[in-house]
Amino acid sequence: MEFFNRYRNLSVLLVAILAQLLLLAYQAKSNQDVRLIRVWAASAVTPLARVLEAGRSGASHFFHDYFLLIGVREENRNLKVELQRTEMDNQYLRAQLATADNAKALSIFRPSSRSKTLAAHNIGRTTDTSAQVILVDRGSSDGVQKGMAVITPEGIVGKIIGVTPTVSNVLLITDPSFAAFVVSEKHHNVHGTLKGQGTGIVIVDHVENEETVEPGEVFLTSGEDLIFPRGIPAGQVSSVREGKKNKEIYLTPSGIQNGVDDVLIVIDGVHGAIPEAPAADQPVHMLPPPDLDPSAPEADVPAQSSAHQTDLDRAVQHYRDSGAVRGHISDNKNGGGKNSAPAPANSAHP
Amino acid sequence: MKEVPVGFHDARKNRVSKFNWMSILGVPLAAILFQVVVPRFIPDLSYLELPLLVTIYFSLVRRSPVAGVLFGAGIGLAQDSLAPPLPLHPLGMFGIAKTLVGYSVGSVSQRFEVGNPTVRLVLTLFFFFFHQFFYWFLQRALLSEPVDFEFLQTIVLAGLNAAVAVPLFHVLDKLKVTD
Q: Whole-model pTM?
């Protein structure tokens, strides 16, 4: 006790450091988070963060519109009073609409996706700025679980790595610890592992030099990681070069290009198909150029092969054959187009 | 009469600043909220380590190593709890680093005139660097993460944070409770 009194400051420091080292050791040994502390912190901060976000969103849209209005007013001084009154009346509604734009895009996308998703809003970043992790306003009380995929209509965003009742941590696709299995849309046999790098560009690893990958082609999730449903865009190849053993493929992630304000959490994923990408040298059907002279006679249409005949064409052919047997002559010089009807018996009359 | 060098102050004449509990709870909470919310819209502001600046400020003006330990551990653990979960960031990393900062600042503050802006600038510069270095050391030693220490970047960030700290501390001085 005398030692404690004499070295009070040092003793308090040692106790505080030792307690936290024990906390670290417990987490390292059990590989488990001290969930209670994180839940308390998230519960305390989330409502404040939501209020701040709502206030910021409303204020920024309001002032954005207001300053635009000032510019218009200077250019149109004569309309100043009338314009200002009208615009001010509508500013609040416009701010609401602008806020809803992202949510609208998601609401259009959601029914088109077969996976069951949950819309979530980004409310901030974590305090560790070295990690690319964001906080979204959906938690375990909304059915979110660790390991779920997070996407936007444009592509994958990241995955859930931590959940509290009100907030979830989303590890972004750009974080160095992020990984997902991907496959080339163009060459379906090219599989790789997408990895973040801590920058705005991600890489695809484990693609051998013998494989063919070209700049501009798109990589999709392959579904093999059991996190992301198959067929969601991951990114577009920005550059590719040969490495020692594997190709060095750099991708521009498609899911975060328009920001990550609003995202979708895949609650129940359904794998989609990998679409066939059109080949670059595939022949393209083109119509003949239109006749510029309106007085010129109608151009002959090439005869259709029997493979492209419709039921109507076959019916016309049947009537024409029957007419020929009976001595009728058809005046249809096209030989029976798709929409041509059999010539009636009195068709020769004016 | 014994002369006291410029910047130094007779410890017996130092006054311990007091704050009401609303300030003691509210200011660190606001600093952590700032770190969570603001960089989302202004990414460049992610360089601001407001929780650390607040730790330095309270430890500085309370002039007590014990108070510094409590402020550092409390703010650090609160910051830890809003960091990414395991395996990225175990609880205690910021806590230990800030506990050491709080203790050191509390000890040093007994020998300086802590109201002097130059002293505040230099102390913040030094302790920001100390905090980043010790955090890096913990990452390497305890988590075995292969992270490099960016010396030049840390110096620049220390300067920027110190530049922000001087006016910030001046504002926080207004929250002091006068007897």
A: 0.69
